[in-house]
Design goal:
This protein is mainly α. The chain contains 8 helices and 3 strands, in the order ααβββαααααα. It has a 3-stranded antiparallel β-sheet with strand order 1-2-3, with no helix packed on it. The radius of gyration is 19 Å and the shape is globular.
Length: about 170
């Protein structure tokens, strides 16, 4: 449970992609500073991201019980006996999917996956940026999207600017 909770916290708090989670190594985590170094999509260099003290604590709790792999130093490992190497992207997908299914009512048809959690984190960041007087460009930095048009989708979803403007135009025409 500790590994799965750490994965969920990183996805929900930082909006990490599956590949970014899978690519984390032990040396990428700085517990005292509550920071992670990730290699973002299409990036050559790792970038440092801050996380909350609580998330750093949860990652540390996972590290304390984490099986030691034979080679390398992945942060997240398999729990299959004899196969304690780096966890795979499909495994992260299945973990999140099964936890989402368990959290939802049995009658729900909704499906939760890592990318939906990323979307939720970015949408939440849009709201928090607005509430804290931060520029929309800060959401782009948070999401690590290269193209602002991708971030604009989240902004429009949140502030519903298109719907407001459409209604205003409709009233003008009446």
């Amino acid at each position: 449970g500790r590994r799965d909770y750490a994965i969920l916290r990183l996805a929900a708090e930082l909006g990490l992609r599956r590949r970014e989670i899978v690519g984390l190594d032990l040396e990428d985590f700085d517990a005292p500073a509550a920071e992670l170094k990730i290699r973002g999509k299409g990036r050559r260099e790792k970038e440092t991201l801050a996380c909350s003290a609580r998330t750093a604590e949860i990652i540390q709790q996972w590290i304390e019980v984490r099986p030691r792999p034979r080679a390398g130093s992945p942060l997240f490992t398999n729990l299959i006996p004899g196969r304690t190497g780096r966890i795979s992207g499909p495994a992260v997908y299945l973990i999140v999917r099964s936890l989402g299914k368990a959290a939802l009512p049995a009658s729900s048809r909704r499906k939760i996956g890592p990318h939906k959690i990323r979307h939720t984190a970015i949408t939440s960041a849009v709201r928090l940026a607005k509430a804290n007087g931060l520029a929309r460009e800060e959401v782009q930095k948070f999401s690590r999207h290269k193209d602002f048009r991708m971030v604009a989708r989240y902004i429009d979803t949140d502030d519903q600017a298109q719907a407001i403007l459409a209604r205003a135009n409709g009233q003008r025409l009446a």
